[in-house]
Every structure is written in structure tokens, then in C-alpha cells.
Amino acid sequence: MSAAAAGDPAQGGIAHRVAVALYGAIVPGAQSSLYWPFLVLTVVLALALYVMRSGRGAKGADGRERPCTLREYLLPSAIYTHLSARVDIGLYLIDRAMMPVWGLAFLGAWAPFIERSTVGVLQRAFGAGPRLAVNVGWKLLFGLVTLLLVDMCFFFYHLMMHRTRIGWAIHKVHHSAEVLTPLTRSREHFLEAPIEAAATSFGLSLSGGIFAYVFGGAITQITVMNVGIFFFLYTLNGNFRHYHVSFRYPRWLEYWLQSPGMHHTHHSILRKHWDSNLGLVTSIWDRLFGTLYIAEPNEETPWGLPPEHQAQCRTLSQNLLAPFREIHAILRESRTGSLRPRRFGA
Ligand SMILES: [Zn+2]
Ligand SMILES: [Zn+2]
């Protein structure tokens, strides 16, 4: 994500650019994980893992690890020709088509509003900001605080999508992926993109507002390749969250940071893995809310939904229509007082 919160916070011009840049990061674009250098990096890292692990760590379409040739390790045909991977492409293209609508009509107003409100609340509470001088240390802190606030907002948005019936009706489209590819990151119903973007841009704008207040709007993040430095570090291996090769950290580190491989568990069909590892960057919130699951090194994580639900969310049109059908049913049930429990009707 790019530089944030410089200039006059009252004007909101920077915040607007932040919103657009943020949306570019959330919905694949020039600075997202699908930015070609990050994709090349994914392949290079996968190559390094192949050598270091003697060909182990790659999972098949059933989510089970298996030995394979180098070509199959990097680009397994069973995964990239799977219907699920093709549906990923369709959902990605629809997301891209909707981007101008959400980016301009919604986020262009939302992010500046949050930033201006944050500055306003701080001014009312503490008077004029101290206008501290900016140095590298403050810039680094700005990047870190932004990352942590976005991480927090992402967790609560994700928790809501898993723990509410309407949220799950929409978010289920992401979990109907039967195989994981970097494009699965964008496999979401078009109703979900603005919800996610609103939540994460709230964290971004909150941080932007706080630092704009303290530094008189004169601070920017340190960026690498036009991405905030800490987000850049996160993005380095972020594609492995939706890649069939499991990239895990040492167990002690996974108690603090989400390794990409922990997202394999999040996508698992197995009941013991449901609603686990909801975080984006840190594991802090998962620990606090009891949703952290650190799998054993070779634990199986078959991806997708239980069979009867998977059957309703397999093709592109099914994935596009299912949330509307389900929300309609939920609203009807709530009117008649026969609301069933959340998730899979279990
Ligand atoms: Zn999820
Ligand atoms: Zn995912």
C-alpha cells in the first residue's frame, strides 16, 4: 500500500489517493500481490522451497501433500485446470470491473471522512496538534501502526463474515475454492469487496488521521516499490496464502505472525479447522479470540466446503447467485421467526 496521510488532512486529497491506492491493493492491480514482480518472487521462493525441502510441501487438489516433479511443484496441472481455478478468473474479472464503482463512489468519500473525523476528534480532545518534526523513526512507526490497525480491522471484518449468517452467505464464495492459486485471493463475491475495503481503509485512515494530527499532515510512510515498507514485507510471501505450496514459519513465530501456510488451514473443509486463523498479518487477534490453529507440519487441509454446500457453489453463476438466494432465505426466515443457526445449517 502506498504512502498515506500527507498534506492538509482537512482537504482529504491525500486520503482520497490513499483510498484509491488501498483499493488497488485489495482488489488486484498494479500494487497488489498480483503485481508481476511479486508473482515472479512467488515462483523464486517456491523454487527455493523445492530445493530446501527436497520437493516436499506441495499439496494436490485434495489438499494432501505429495511428492512431485519440479514442474508439477511450481505449476500443478491438476490445480490450474481445475474448475475452481477457472471460476477464480471469472470472479477476479468481475471484481476488476466493479473497482471504479467502489473506488470512486464509495471509498473516495469513506477514507477522507474517517481521516478528517479522526483529526477532528483529536483536535477537540487535545487542542491543536503538536506538529512534531518528522524523522525516519517516526516514519517507520507510522508504517508499523498502520499495518497493525489494518490488521486489527481486517480481523474483525473477517470474524463478522464468518460468524454472521449474511456475512457467511457472501464470504462462502471465497471458501468455495477447491484449489488454491494466487488468483484465489480475488475469489470473492462482488458484494464482499466494498465491505473488506471499508474495513481495512478504516484502519488505514485512522492511522493516517492520528499521524496527520501529530505531525501537521507532513508525514509519509517509507515505501518500497510504492508500497508501505511493512506491507511490502508482508507482500513478499503473501501470495503463498493462496498457493498450493505450504510456506510455514517456526511454530513459536506463528503465535505472533500469520504464516501463509496458516491460511491453508483457514480454507480447510475439516470441521476442526473451521473459522480458524482469521488474521491477515499478526496472530494476536486470533489468540485473543480463540481462533488460532497451528497445524502439525504435515497436517492435511483439504480445501472447500462440505459436499452438499460445495455442490451449490461450484460454477461461476452458482457463486454469483448463491449469496443473493441465501440472504433472501435468511431475511424470509427472520420475518417468520424460523431463523436457523449460522453456517452449513449445522
Ligand atoms: Zn474466511
Ligand atoms: Zn483465503
Distance between the termini: 39 Å
**Derived structural class:** mainly alpha
Structural Rg? 21 Å
Q: What summary fits the major beta sheet?
A: 2 strands, antiparallel
Task: Report the principal-axis shape.
Answer: globular
Q: Which ligands does the model contain, each kind named once?
A: zinc ion
Mean pLDDT: 83
Strand order of the largest sheet: 1-2
Strand fraction equals under 5%
The H/E string reads: HHHHHHHHEEHHHHHH
Description:
The protein is mainly alpha-helical. Helix content is 56%, strand content 1%. It has a two-stranded antiparallel sheet with strand order 1-2. Helix 5 runs parallel beside helix 8, helix 6 runs antiparallel to helix 8 (192-215) and helix 7 (165-175) runs antiparallel to helix 14 (316-336).
Furnish the topology, listing elements before pairings.
Layout: H1 13-26, H2 36-52, H3 70-74, H4 77-80, H5 83-126, H6 136-163, H7 165-175, H8 192-215, E1 223-224, E2 227-228, H9 229-236, H10 251-254, H11 262-266, H12 284-288, H13 307-310, H14 316-336
Antiparallel strand pairs: 1-2
Helix pairs in contact: 1-5, 1-8, 5-8, 6-7, 6-8, 7-14
The chain binds zinc ion (ZN) (2 copies).
One zinc ion binds next to helix 6 and helix 7.
Key descriptive features of the protein:
single chain; about 350 residues; mainly alpha; two-stranded antiparallel sheet; 2 strands; about 55% helix; globular; disordered N terminus; binds zinc ion
